[in-house]
Specification:
Two copies of one chain form a homodimer. With 383 residues, the first copy, chain A, is an alpha/beta fold. Chain A folds into two domains: 190 residues, Dehydroquinate synthase-like, alpha domain; 139 residues, Rossmann fold, CATH 3.40.50.1970. Chain A contains 16 helices and twelve strands. In chain A, the strands form three sheets. An eight-stranded mixed β-sheet of chain A has the order 1-2-3-10-7-6-4-5, sandwiched between helices. In chain A, helix 8 runs parallel beside helix 9, helix 9 packs across helix 10 and helix 9 packs across helix 11. Chains A and B meet through helix 6, strand 8 and strand 9 of A and helix 6, strand 8 and strand 9 of B.
Chain lengths: 383, 383
């Protein structure tokens, strides 16, 4: 019901699916500087604390005095040694090696091993304290140990705060496929505190920016804010965290397990991003999402799904976030990776979620050769 | 709210928790020889087909023409080579080694590997065709691959038909702990066909009998049937399959994730069964459940939770199912294993679900030394 494929656009009626940001947004309980955003999913209600003081307040309300098992990575453990000592001194702290390449089953089972040794039980609160990798693999471990322990996410990167810590997707990469083994498991609490963003390197900021720009291509309010911004500095981006969280929460509430055709809107730009990431690696996920958003916007324009004026506005936002577009030789062969995307269930076609108009998106489906041809033309500057 | 611990029995009021079988039973849609039993859980509705023709009917309705990935074990693949060829000839068939010792992460990842190679996707139907191990590890793989594929269980053992295939618990054993890593994942369909029971060795029949006797200690109707039976032959036990399924379905519907204090009633006899199984191994799970049910009935009697007449009736049923009670030297030290049970979350006490009266059970909680002392006395014939 929610789907609108390219074929539809070419036939009578041109059915499409549009949502205004207002309709998708979860209600917020606004405080002075901190917001609590509730997520009511079928499996478990959750709450996201956003803003200054989120960490302390969440800690006091949910973690103090509980049996905790903290998963963090080597970078975060070093940067926040004092905080860990102060708040998690009496907890089991499991430090996994940092980096996307460690989001694998070896890391997962090392966490499970330590949970067994620590005699964790179902009421233990697993605290995933770190970026996207810690959140994904730590959340996964929490979902599996004794078929599920309690889970609190404390995301320390911009990407994790605006995107990956919210919504309950957990996973590891396996056999070269991103997130191919995982679970849906909602955290009971997510603490998005801007204090953790101050130590981020530039690359990490850009990484988060990728998901923010993607959200702008789905949500009118965030689009307007990014359009009107003079710079994309950290202070500015911090303010977008609760807006992105509310947008995502609204989507996840309506389609927790990506079965109703709605949640996949969050994959805008991601089919191409994942295809390139698999082939070229090295750059951050967020950069690939920026590239993917630009490529898929151009495809939407060429397919007649998106008007030129709006496409150009999206592209302008992307180019401000990523002034120098990387080069991708052999991009045609990278296109095949898109077939491995989870959305393309058993089809020989490539599904893309693309921008349509301000606050609206569409889903289009292209034969692989057409998609590959588009990528080559865009890379060659012909589109 | 549902819990009634031993302490309660000793204090004023003696709160206890009792359910009649009628209240817990899922509604059945009766056909001529086959029943369809619906399970409405929060996560996913499911349906269990019980009786002659269950396999063919379920196959026609759900599996024919679909993209299938079949998980089975070496025994089942040998015994049902013709059936597999006929019905699953065009499907990917993944044969895992038979036996409880293979319910581990190696087998799990070998299935996931083959799913990747077969390019399975979210709409692929994973068919777990075999006994409890195939169901548990196959169901687990289905829950994890792309965060969940479709799942149909075709249980081929009495144990799997009356118990493990229904209710959505999946798991592997890990680091010496039973089912410590797993998920809740409801199959959309379970096909319990008596045709598969005809090839079972005696040991497997007794294994299923363990869970049937346990259910009798919870459900008045099944208790009456077992009490009145003259022999426990396969034809007789087959008729109990839909009754046991309906009872379990009723429990699972009300407490899918074992969080409401109800589903753990299904662990009657299991705390002691698992403790002994960990120490002594070799015998079948069902035999340990029979032993556990006998031991825990005697404990309930000694604690004053269960009346002598009813306890003796339960013990009589157990002894007809297991005429020769095995011996357990050093049973006192085996008692410690009970602390590892998932029910005993972070407590130094042992929780037991014990028979109370016909169709009623109680939960009691004992300090470890008391529990160990009971086991020793019972083993020594003093209780």
């Amino acid at each position: 019901m929610f789907r609108a494929r390219a074929e539809d656009f070419r036939t009578a009626g041109r059915r499409s699916y549009a949502r205004s940001a207002g309709a998708l947004r979860a209600p917020a309980v606004r405080g002075k500087s901190m917001q609590k955003i509730r997520i009511h999913t079928k499996s478990r209600p959750g709450i996201v604390y956003c803003g200054e003081g989120a960490f302390e307040q969440g800690y006091e309300e949910t973690l103090a005095g509980k049996e905790l098992f903290v998963v963090t990575d080597s970078n975060v453990a070093r940067l926040y040694a004092d905080l860990i000592e102060k708040y998690f001194g009496s907890a089991h702290v499991c430090v996994v090696p940092a980096g996307e390449k460690n989001k694998n089953h070896k890391t997962l089972f090392s966490i499970l091993d330590e949970m067994v040794r620590a005699r964790c039980h179902r009421k233990t609160v697993l605290v995933a304290f770190g970026g996207g990798v810690v959140g994904d693999v730590g959340g996964f471990a929490a979902s599996l140990y004794m078929r599920g322990t309690r889970l609190v996410q404390i995301p320390t990167t911009l990407l994790a705060q605006v995107d990956s810590s919210v919504g309950g997707k957990t996973a590891i990469d396996y056999r070269g496929y991103k997130n191919i083994v995982g679970s849906f498991y909602q955290p009971e609490q997510v603490l998005c505190d801007p204090r953790f963003l101050t130590t981020l390197p530039k690359r990490e900021i850009r990484c988060g920016l990728g998901e923010i720009v993607k959200t702008a291509a789905l949500d009118a309010e965030i689009f307007d804010i990014l359009q009107g911004a003079t710079d994309f500095g950290l202070r500015f981006l911090e303010k977008l965290v609760p807006l992105c969280v509310r947008f995502k929460a609204g989507v996840v509430e309506r389609d927790e397990r990506e079965t109703a055709g709605l949640r996949q809107c969050l994959n805008l730009g991601h089919t191409t991003a994942h295809a390139l990431e698999l082939d070229y690696g090295r750059r951050s996920h967020g950069e690939y999402v920026l590239v993917g958003t630009a490529f898929e916007t151009k495809i939407a324009l060429a397919e007649g799904v998106c008007k030129r004026e709006y496409a150009e506005r999206i592209l302008k936002i992307v180019s401000r976030a990523l002034p120098k577009m990387p080069r991708f030789p052999d991009i045609g062969s990278a296109a095949e990776n898109a077939l491995l995307d989870k959305k393309n269930s058993g089809q020989e076609k490539i599904s893309l979620v693309v921008p349509k108009a301000r606050g609206e998106y569409a889903e289009i489906s292209l034969p692989l050769p057409t998609y590959a041809e588009y990528l080559k033309k865009i890379e060659g500057g012909l589109l």
